[in-house]
Fold these 2 entries.
Entry 1:
Amino acid sequence: MVLMRLFGLSVFVSLAVVTAVVFVSAKADDSEVETQLDERWWSPGDGRVFPEILDYSNASGQLRIQLTGGEIDTNGHPFFEPYGPAGRACITCHQPSDAMSLSTETIQSRWEATNGQDPLFAAVDGSDCPILPQDDPKSHRLLLERGLFRIERPWPPKPFLDFPERAPDFKIEVVNDPNGCNSGPEFGPDAGKISVYRRPRPAANMKYLLAVGFEYDPKQGLGLPRDPETNVLLSGNLLADGRASTLKDQMNDAAHSHLEFETDFWSDAEAQIEDFLLRVYAAQQVDAVGGSLDDLDAGGGPDLLATSEAGQLGSIGRAVWSEFEAWETMTEAEKTAIGPEATAWRESVARGARIFRDRTFLISDSAGINSPIGFGNPVRNGCAFCHNMRQMGNDVAPGQVDLGTTVLPFADPAPELPLFRITCLDEPHPHYGREFFTQDPGFALSTGKCADVGKITLQSMRGLSARAPFFSNGSSETLQEVVEFYDRRYNIGYSEQEKTDLINLMSAL
Ligand code: HEC
Ligand code: HEC
């Protein structure tokens, strides 16, 4: 049994059921254990009221979902109703307990609870390929083990934003097709389709993802495109490959793919979904060791997100997680009140915030940062160079970056994922040369440009404790693995203490 101190009241939670307990409360300070497992999973069409505050326990502590502007009745609401033929809704893959994403832990417990019959596992993208026998859990391996849904992109790409329309400047060949969705008469580049496998990104905190910090995209060297309907500047921070640039495009992309709609959403539904997405905030609220995360006005909890201005660049003095630095100057009385363990944990998070911003290393061969713009290759900087938006950790300067998460030799060699050989037809790739291998070409599936292969849009960094695994291809199972990935990728040489501090910081977001 572990003792968690929640808002001054002590709650005993057995470790075995820690994920099965849901806290529902009307106000911030009267959380109580209300119901068990069934309440945790939101089934499409269950007609619940979505309250202003929803609290869910997880292995690190407790996540809070905050809905601004009052509760909503989800009856008939298109984010929650299974309007498509598959019995799914947006809520199927964007669950409140998982920071409006979906963890593999939840996916596996759903498989067990329904013997694989939940609409979540629909053949279209909830299996590795629709041609596989659907009752066999092996056919859903990428979803069950890595939390990945199949995303089918047209090949060659369709016209995209302001990019000049032209044939792709690279050739793509399939060298590994472990599940059949990249070859044969129906699938693969020769059939005009490429299947890649990706994590659901959190459908929350959207004002930060839509915020435009600069009118210029340094990662492409171009001005930002505008929404042709509204003339608003587009942030370019949605989806791994940026294929949708407004919430409306995004929801209709989801309708046609995940929900198997024949048409777009009707306009009332579009407005309702957009309204919900812009009101829902997710962040870790309580740490099991460190206690309340918004104590001393530190940087935790969704309330700060709901009330802060989006799109601010974290710069020296007010860096991306600088709120947590309040924990560097706790008084003796404050330390006594929370005890030595919580004090040590909070000091570690505060150090983590400084490491994220100040601990530099050589960032090399990462297209979007080291090319084509003038930062140089390598460039000495820290995590906050790329993850620089205050409160959220995505990038104020829009656009995509290739970390190597999906490109060899840096990617985790996963034989269960497809592998493509890329051959640049004009200029060689700025870092990989003329020919190289990727599991997901990322942004290049939208632009058709060889220099964009492997570029992925940065995710927001909130609610990480509720939604493992990480990176677009689920290659890091834990936050420890995320830190180990960076340590290897950029030869950083973090000490064990620095790693722990970064992990504690990220678990508090
Ligand atoms: C079958 C699972 C599934 C369903 C159903 C689903 N999504 Fe998603 N969602 C995903 C995946 C996977 C991604 C990431 C795709 C990518 O990056 O290419 C995503 C991404 C998103 C994003 C982008 C967030 C970001 O940070 O870029 C939003 C917003 C979103 N979904 C909203 C919705 C809405 C609204 C619906 C209902 C109309 C919906 N989703 C239905 C799986 C799903
Ligand atoms: C060169 C730019 C860059 C730097 C520097 C950088 N990141 Fe990232 N980060 C990215 C990109 C791009 C992604 C998305 C990659 C993907 O999903 O495949 C990402 C994703 C992440 C994620 C995954 C979030 C999720 O929802 O899955 C975490 C966590 C993260 N970074 C933490 C860090 C930490 C910690 C550091 C410092 C050690 C760091 N990043 C340094 C560009 C960068």
Entry 2:
Amino acid sequence: MKNSLRLALVALSASAFYIVATPPALSAESAVHSLRGIDVKDEGQAPEMRVNPGKRPGSQKPIARTFQQQPPVIPHATDNFDEITLEENQCLTCHGPEKYKEKKAPKIGDSHFRNQQTGEIMKQMSNARHNCVQCHVPQMDAPPLVENTFKGLPVKAQK
Ligand code: HEC
Ligand code: HEC
């Protein structure tokens, strides 16, 4: 077969496939709606930036816990701190066992020294506690995203 003929045949079979594979036009009722609820060409509105109401560490009061084993929330601002990395952890420069007295900060909890596998209490903090913000979260003055009926235990009942 000549090359040009072969090409023409390929083009023809491709267009035949296209005709068969094209879905029928959508009716008005079944038209697709975006989950965003607005037209693609309209500019979306980013929600207003929320500010952490906490101030410099050393000037804040602890926030009451809602049950005994709750990791306490962070009452102070954290915006100016460096990210926690494998090598560095700024939180420990105030809350670590060597520094907390000098910095007048609460010492990391007793449970942070427990070896998770053996249960033994170690001199060093367990590496499983390195990523503080996995459990301790700063606060934002924002309405809850979803309603809920959670009620914390009164402080007396926690003792
Ligand atoms: C410059 C020192 C400093 C640094 C850095 C720091 N903190 Fe604090 N933190 C404090 C002090 C002081 C308090 C006591 C409350 C206050 O005075 O603000 C406190 C309170 C807390 C509390 C509340 C404890 C309780 O019993 O309610 C938590 C949790 C906490 N910090 C976690 C963190 C985490 C996590 C980081 C790192 C992201 C961090 N802190 C970095 C000094 C510091
Ligand atoms: C796996 C979750 C988890 C991680 C990770 C973690 N904590 Fe905690 N933390 C807790 C819980 C739960 C408590 C309350 C029970 C206790 O005191 O051990 C607590 C208590 C504390 C307290 C209050 C202690 C007291 O005596 O009232 C401080 C301060 C604290 N953590 C700081 C830190 C810092 C700083 C880091 C990172 C180096 C960290 N935590 C990592 C769960 C965690």
